[in-house]
Amino acid sequence: MYGSRRADAVAVGLLAAAALAGLALWASLPDQMAIHWSGSEPNSYVSKPLGVFAVPALGVASVVLVRLVPDSLTSTPGGVGPTVLFLGVVLAWVQGIVYAWNLGYRFDVGLAVVPVLVGAGLLVAYATTQG
Asked: Where do the DUF1648 domain residues begin and end (predicted)?
């Protein structure tokens, strides 16, 4: 239980840090922020407040929801803690990608999400050895 609560705290902390980074970068971010890409070109934009706060807020809401759902309704191999931590890391990483792009840094977004895929593979490997 303690490890799961610590994972919750780390995940929420990362999401809060992503939101605070958005506040710190607020003046430098465009009024319309790219949030989705097709290939290397953005194809979806949202207002700055939504671009800064939506992902962190949805991430925190997801952590809370996971804790509100009774254990009898879930069957997460390896435990909920690693999954919650992975969620926080992934969403904070993606938010960082969104900020970087909208600050004018150009890169292959597909390559930028490769660490997420590697992390997902590691999480699945961990879960299958634990579950």
From this structure: 14-59
Q: Which amino acid is at 50?
A: L
pTM of the full predicted structure?
A: 0.86
pLDDT confidence of 31, banded at 50, 70, 90?
very high
Alpha-helical runs (H) found in 1-131: 2-25, 48-68, 80-102, 109-112, 114-130
Integer Cα distance of 2 and 68 in angstroms: 16
CA distance 66 to 88: 13
Q: Where are the domains of the chain?
A: 2-130
CB 34 within 8 A of CB 98: yes
